Amino acid sequence: MTDRLSAHAIHERHMRESLEYRREYERTRFANDVAVRVVGYRAEHDLSQTALARMLGMHQSAIARLEAGEHEPSFTMLSRLSQVLGEDFSVDITPDRMKLRSAAG
Q1: pLDDT tens column, 20-76
Q2: Domain-wise residue ranges, the chain
Q3: What is the pTM of this model?
Q4: Three-state DSSP state, 99
Q5: How does 64-103 read in b/e, with b if 16+ C-beta sit within 10 Å?
Q6: Which fold would CATH assign to domain 7-100?
Q7: Minimal CA–CA distance to 69: which of 105, 17, 25, 19?
Q8: Cα 51 from Cα 76, distance rounded (Å)
Q9: Which terminus of the chain is less hemmed in, N or C, by CB atoms within 10 Å?
Q10: H or E segment at 81?
Q11: Whose CA is closest to 56, among 98, 25, 87?
């Protein structure tokens, strides 16, 4: 039987061992954090991508791209998400990174 590593363990190993992986992770982290938050909202409210798109006045394909973390969402998009979903999408900007503040505060 082979040992299986968790996704978290694999991620941690790559973060330690690969500068390229670490740079790409940090580059895409903000978009991925927003994606996780949107997917979580949709799952919690039992919404399809199409239903969420209607709520936001968007196309389903735009929701799919947002949830894939393909592009950093604009501040306008974050504002729309916050207003329509009633969720906090506060952003902390520091010299070394932009970070989505945790949902808890």
Answers
A1: 999 988 888 999 999 999 999 999 999 999 999 999 999 999 999 999 998 899 999
A2: 7-100
A3: 0.81
A4: strand
A5: ebbbebeebbeeebbebbeeebeeebeeeeeeeeeebeee
A6: 434 Repressor (Amino-terminal Domain) (1.10.260)
A7: 25
A8: 20
A9: N
A10: helix 75-85
A11: 87
